[in-house]
Amino acid sequence: MATLLHETTPEVPDSTADASVHASCAARGPQGVLLTGPPGAGKSDLLLRLLEAGYDLVADDRVILEGARARPPAALAGLLEVRGLGIVARGWIAATDIALVVELSPDRPDRLPHPRTHDGTGAPVLTLDPRAASAVAKIGIALDCLAGTCELHAGLLGDGAP
Known about the structure:
Blueprint: E1 5-6, E2 20-28, E3 31-36, H1 43-52, E4 56-59, E5 62-66, E6 69-71, E7 79-82, E8 86-89, E9 92-93, E10 96-104, E11 125-128, H2 135-147
Parallel strand pairs: 3-10, 10-11
Antiparallel strand pairs: 1-9, 2-3, 2-4, 2-5, 5-6, 6-10, 7-8
């Protein structure tokens, strides 16, 4: 579940380095979205588009995972890299539960992917091209299906939504 939005950077306890992953994270209500991919894949840019679509910032560049719970490292809480502009401070939430992992890939994703789950969080994995104009919409539809507000007939979640 998402928690309080912060406008400044309060103390956020750090965790072990083992739980820190190179990723970005946003939340739509109680549903966290973990963006994964190699450096330069477009995680921060897609995160910026999610924020502009009304999602909340959890973390950019590094995310502390505690099972399916995600939070920012203390040093990066509330900071977002905007390529070509710099590092900006934004309002952020302290933690969220990961509902969906988005694996960024410039390759065309499968039309009907086989269901996969993320080893660290147990959340379903959606592979998409972050440069696609529809990337934010696809994430929103996946979250809707996970929440049970739409029906997925085949693909990411298998044969039918949960």
